[in-house]
Please model this.
Amino acid sequence: MLYREAGQFKTSYAADQQLFPIRQDRIGILILLAVVFLVIPGFASDYWFSAILIPFLIFSLAALGLNILTGYAGQLSLGSAAFMAVGAYAAYNFQLRIDGIPILVSFVCAGLTAAGAGILFGLPSLWIKGFYLAVATLAAQFFIVWCLTKFPWLSNYSSSGVISTQPLIFFGHEFTSPQEKYLLVLTIVAVMALAAKNMVRSSTGRAWMAVRDMDVAASVIGIRLMPAKLLAFAVSAFYCGVAGALYAFCYLGSVEPDGFSLDMSFRILFMIIIGGVGSILGSFLGAAFILLLPIFLDIALPWVASLLGLPFSSATVSHIQVLVFGALIMFFLIVEPHGLARLWQITKEKLRLWPFPH
Amino acid sequence: MQFFLEVLISGLLSGVMYALVALGFVLIYKASGVFNFAQGAMVYLAALAVVGCMEKGAPLWLAIILAFVIMTLFGIATEKFVLRKLVNQPPITLFMATIGLAFFIEGLAPIVFGSEPRALDLGIVDEPIPAILDAWDMVISKFDLVAAGIAALLVTTLALFFQYTRIGRALRAVADDHQAALSIGIPLQHIWAIVWGIAGFVALVAGLMWGARNGVQFALTFTALKALPVLIIGGFTSVPGAIAGGLIIGASEKLAEIYLPPVMQSMFGGNFGGIEGWFPYVLALFFLLVRPEGLFGEKHIDRV
Model:
């Protein structure tokens, strides 16, 4: 009854094309933004900020990047973590080597560096696709991490490539508390998510979707495949790169190349599969799900084990985590290939008719 | 020169081991068009099953038979509960499902059989062959040679099986055209179950070899990732391609590991070990430039 667009007439093209055409959606988004910007900083504890909210936002951004590439442009990538690593190390080096460069500028430059790497490793996508491309992106994953370990200049000659990030200084004010870092990450993620939302409904986004659905047909209707695919790689790597820079500067503070492992790439891939391939909202839902599941299992499993009187070790917990991840992936692909985002959409459809479905 | 030959031969022999894993990928891809990312995890599961059964007191031969039964059942279950539900989905969805399957196995196997690294003793020692050591002064491992022999035997058996048996012919028919195979009365789902069983068997052989060589541990799943560039070079649909690709990758990565770091060191300074980790992938990447379908693969034609 509440969620119904009856009576909302669109009288101009601008109204017809707006981002959220239904008024309830607009109000909902505004409320959500107000809550995350104004209410949460007042209530959440430091643990919540630094262990849950900040990584959630950062991984959402990375998942968003992969979703642009895989969900919208249809190019499977197993190298997202490597592009995050490029972003993290590039931001560190820009801060280190250019005197007085503002931190946001170095984040943008880090994203652009990652975009360059993305284009380079996206080149094979011009003549291969599917699994072949997945293997090609594996090359990016292993090669980039190896480079970061073996070229000491990139980590300023620290042992085994570990970098400790510089302080986050904005206009002379240093961001130290988790709360400030949260607001910084949130702002960046919100802006970039808005940009993504707009991008995927622009001509670029539509070209990507055409390429995804059938590239030969797309080229027949006049979409130039090379710019479309490379742009998708560049934008995706840009998002991952910024996510990587935030991961280093706002979340961990000190990272090593091996932290950006293949396992992390898979985690990001799982986020978009579970959240919804080809959905902006899905990237956020998937990131939340994948990050919260281990925490939930950590709490729930010992409890279940003690209830059943089973012997239990922490190694078993991590194995069960991996097992549950795998099982969930298969489950979602079989039962709901469009992920949590699709479930949300179905709920909305139902809500429109509720409580008089006929 | 002598050293070069020694590196080359040991590289070729370890390439055979990669080929063993790659074979499993090729079999499933040929018969059902599924790129089975979980093949590496299946190798791990097979090796763990053998070690786990031996720990329970079973002799080696019994453990291998039990592991074979487990792998076959597992393959059939995968086909029945996962892939059959995903018929007619785009190949990329199937691929992602097998990534999920890989994680599932990697979580399940250690829970059932224990996760600590263990040695697997097949009764073949990993030591230089004295005759070759005396005659040419080269270190060629006896174990590697036996592994190569087993791989050759396996490939020959599979080739004969595909070429001459009734099931083998049915498999090839399914690989060529699902629809046509169905219409002449080949039971598609049985065939797929059989293919997954065979892939389980290949994984078992690979698991035995790799497990005996490097110990049964989680790292086995990473070795299996090396099979991917092998497939790109050899072609996804060709059994001989898997062997040729394996040899190329094995030899080139060993040569690169020995000869590239000094060159890079003189160029940039510093230590550049560990090239093995990425070299096969980059090699495969460049190979794609020249022959996207691989050495023996079928040319891919797009239809609208």
User: Anything to note?
Assistant: The mean pLDDT of chain B is 82. Chain B touches chain A through 48 residues (CB under 8 Å). The two ends of chain B are 53 Å apart (CA to CA). The first helix of chain B runs from residue 2 to 32.
